[in-house]
Amino acid sequence: MAYPFQLGFQDATSPIMEELLHFHDHTLMIVFLISSLVLYIISLMLTTKLTHTSTMDAQEVETIWTILPAIILILIALPSLRILYMMDEINNPSLTVKTMGHQWYWSYEYTDYEDLTFDSYMIPTSDLKPGELRLLEVDNRVVLPMEMTVRMLISSEDVLHSWAVPSLGLKTDAIPGRLNQTTLVSTRPGLYYGQCSEICGSNHSFMPIVLELVPLKHFEKWSASML
């Protein structure tokens, strides 16, 4: 969950999000070093009139500043491709949940159960209880087992939506007529909030997502009570 004036990412809850955070730090350090070098060179050019004549027309310098950026791009691209393939990998999911976007609410269907489906609407501000979060709470949370691979099938029945939960590293478009899929694994229990991340109409800001990750035995009790 984000907090006021937060500058960085939310705490990672899934292995994928941890990899994304490491990649972000890795790339940010490269950008910082390049920016520092460029700033240092610019400051030297502005503060001194000395010119090194042997570097004004040198093949070695041109070779270095051509090869070095290519090496830097490779150092960025390789871990990026690795994470992209990890995000697309499906490892024998233990549970499948179908998510449908509507204007302006989400509906969920647990396809492994015969009749476990519900709609999830945002709770109006006037109905919030003390301690609940404005514009983020829903009347029906998505309860999922932790430490288990869950496959999310995501689509839409009207316009483009986007199902996004930042702390799990999830953001998948909900497209009418197309079924996208993503997987999630939570390493710890808790409540994880997200929102629709695709402008979908006048009430786009009022489509929150709340995932409640619980141990397997609590999930089994919840699913039995819902059937």
From TrEMBL:
It catalyses: 4 Fe(II)-[cytochrome c] + O2 + 8 H(+)(in) = 4 Fe(III)-[cytochrome c] + 2 H2O + 4 H(+)(out). It comes from Coelodonta antiquitatis. CDD domains: CcO_II_C. It is found in: Mitochondrion inner membrane. It is a multi-pass membrane protein. The gene is COX2. NCBIfam families: CoxB. Residues 1-91 form the Cytochrome oxidase subunit II transmembrane region profile domain. Component of the cytochrome c oxidase, the last enzyme in the mitochondrial electron transport chain which drives oxidative phosphorylation. The respiratory chain contains 3 multisubunit complexes succinate dehydrogenase (complex II, CII), ubiquinol-cytochrome c oxidoreductase (cytochrome b-c1 complex, complex III, CIII) and cytochrome c oxidase (complex IV, CIV), that cooperate to transfer electrons derived from NADH and succinate to molecular oxygen, creating an electrochemical gradient over the inner membrane that drives transmembrane transport and the ATP synthase. The keyword S-adenosyl-L-methionine does not apply. It comes from the Eukaryota. The chain crosses the membrane at residues 27-46, 66-85. Residues 92-225 form the Cytochrome oxidase subunit II copper A binding domain. Binds a copper A center. Its main location: mitochondrion. This is Cytochrome c oxidase subunit 2. GO terms for cellular component: mitochondrial inner membrane. One of its GO terms (biological process) is ATP synthesis coupled electron transport. Belongs to the cytochrome c oxidase subunit 2 family. Keywords: Copper, Electron transport, Magnesium, Membrane, Metal-binding, Mitochondrion, Mitochondrion inner membrane, Respiratory chain, Translocase, Transmembrane, Transmembrane helix, Transport.
